[in-house]
Amino acid sequence: MAPRRTRRRTRARGGGRGDRDNSDPQIIQQVASRRCAPGQHVEGLPKGNCVNQTFDQEFIREDVIEGNVVFSGRWDANKPMYKPEFWDRIQELDQHTNTEDPILKCQPQGLTRVGMPERIVQLPNEVILFYAGNFTSPRDFRMIPTDGRMHTKADSEAETFWGRSVGRWDGETLVIDSVGFNDLTWLARGGLLHSEKLHIVERFRRDGNVLHYAVTVEDPEVLLEPWILPERAISLNENPNARFIAESAPCSEYEAGELAAGSHIRH
């Protein structure tokens, strides 16, 4: 008799985002690590439970192949492919993420780390994207012209957190092309740096009440090939009384290692 597939709800443990139910029957184990600064030991936790790297989620998938249950795992899938000369630097940044991470310095998260916007306002020749921010990054917004203009040389030479963006419509898809970045942000946690040659293309597509978001990242300075992020999808909130994005709270730069014992930062 072939083994019966089991369906288990799992919870992510040990992070600042709280417990999460995971209803995907394919994911049967998810373990989140504790994060702390290099050399820091949290009282009450066995040594070894406090790590300082981003490989902190294990997804083990169960498949039935010819009557046999087969398990496979992936660590932080779909990372960008960097040129070999940057590997050591990325590993060093990851090892010291709680002191080196730009997100701790009260600056914008930048693309692609910020994710999807909290609110989108569409005007005849412009789209405005609002971002809610978090406890280490300010709330922010981007104004994207959709009047047919192209990038200028000044756009490419600008050094900004969000880049210089222009938008266009490809059928029902809003395509946003951004250049002119500084190199002060990470693409994602774990020391995923980029250069000022960063080029990002975002695609927003609405399907009924669902918004699909796809991103392609190019950086010929540090990447071997374009990085294509998995497409995200969220349900739109059509409630006209939905919560307003409040003003950002005061922000202070700090190192995560200075948090009180027992506190852990995840980002």
Helix content, binned percent: under 10%
Biggest β-sheet strands, sense, barrel: 6 strands, antiparallel
Mean pLDDT, to the nearest integer, reads: 73
Q: What number of structural domains do the residues give?
A: 2
Number of helices: 3
In CATH, the architecture of the largest domain is: Beta Barrel
- End-to-end CA span: 45 Å
Q: What is the C-level CATH assignment of the largest domain?
A: Mainly Beta
User: Which value, in Å, is the CA radius of gyration?
Assistant: 21 Å
Shape descriptor reads globular
Low-confidence stretches: 1-42, 48-65, 69-76, 256-267
- Secondary structural class: mainly beta
- CATH topology of the largest domain, anyone? Lipocalin
Q: What is the percentage of strand-forming residues?
A: 25-35%
3D structure, described in words:
This protein is mostly beta strands and 267 residues long. The chain folds into two domains: 7-77, no CATH class; 100-235, Lipocalin, CATH 2.40.128. Helix content is 7%, strand content 28%. It has three helices and 13 strands; from the N terminus they run E-E-E-E-H-H-E-E-E-H-E-E-E-E-E-E. It has helices at 87-95, 97-100, 153-157, and strands spanning 34-35, 50-51, 58-65, 68-75, 119-123, 126-131, 140-145, 164-170, 173-179, 199-207, 210-218, 227-228, 232-235. Strand 5 and strand 6 form a beta hairpin. The chain is globular.
